Amino acid sequence: PWEPMRYFLSQLITSLPYRPKALLVISAHWEENTVTITAHPTPALIFDYYGFPPHTYELTWPAPGDPSLAADIQEALHKNGIECLLDETRGFDHGIFIPLKIALPDANIPTVALSLREDLDPEFHMNVGAALHFLGQKGVLIIGSGMSFHNLKIMLSNQDCIESTEFDAWLTGAIESPPKERFQAFRHWYNAPHARLCHPREEHLAPIFVAIGAGGEKNGRCIFTSQVLGAKVSAYQFG
Questions:
Q1: What 3-state class would DSSP assign to 43?
Q2: Exposure class string for 216-230: b at 16+ Cβ within 10 A, else e
Q3: CB 154 within 8 A of CB 231
Q4: Is 192 exposed, middle or buried (0-12, 13-18, 19+ CB in 10 A)?
Q5: In sequence order, what are the residues at sequence separation of 6 or more whose Cβ sits closer than 8 angstroms to the Cβ of residue 176?
């Protein structure tokens, strides 16, 4: 069930109209009391998963960090009244290196990670994204690394989740709405059909809040959809 997603990720960078100068990744697997930015020049990998085969703890993805970009991000957030910190020791968690190992196997684009704030407030995170809108003009690709459906109990039950299709349809409709409507829809995303069934806790949805803010007035569109472990999942792009 993962092959369509693997292929999609393998084409992600090469399908862009330009090669990014750097990547900013918002990871569903990093939450802090205060938004935090990686600032290590050569980040290590964080194997933050358990019970997998031994070789999965020997993976490599040696992309360089970008402390200068991290400082620019911190400055932009501070200018917009958003408290944030630099972390000069943290590496890349699996929400970063697993998809990017497929999308960018040569690991040759500088990469910075941005944490979520642990309250997962949608409006706050859209405002974080809005403060970072300028990065696109500098050739930085902003990636929200999460999952549009994330209920592991259902996904491991070996049953199809019809409700995920209805939530996915709402998600696509909201993303493709005019910007003001899009912002309003995601402020109250939990009112979407089967929202809490599809996301008992929304940490895997929250990266898209940042992407929505960064997308600004750009059109949003669905660029991938598939069925994974009985659930409908999709990916989106702005611009």
A1: coil
A2: eeeebebebbbebbb
A3: yes
A4: buried
A5: 219, 220, 221, 222
Residue 169, both tokens: 């349809």
CA nearest neighbour of 31 among 183, 227, 210, 174: 210
Is 0.70 topped by the overall pTM? Answer: yes
Along the chain (239 residues), what's the average pLDDT of each consecutive run of 10 residues? Answer: 93 94 98 98 96 93 98 98 98 97 97 98 98 96 97 92 97 97 97 98 98 96 96 96
Q: Which residue has the tokens 């409006």?
A: 123
Q: Give, as one character, the DSSP assignment of residue 146.
A: S
Neighbours of 177 (CB within 10 A): 16
The radius of gyration of the chain's CA atoms, rounded to the nearest angstrom, is: 17
C-alpha–C-alpha distance, residues 82 and 158, integer Å? 42
What is the Cα–Cα distance from 164 to 154, expressed in whole angstroms? 10
Cα(102)–Cα(12) distance, rounded to whole angstroms?
9
Q: Say how far apart CA 178 and CA 207 lie, in whole Å.
A: 20
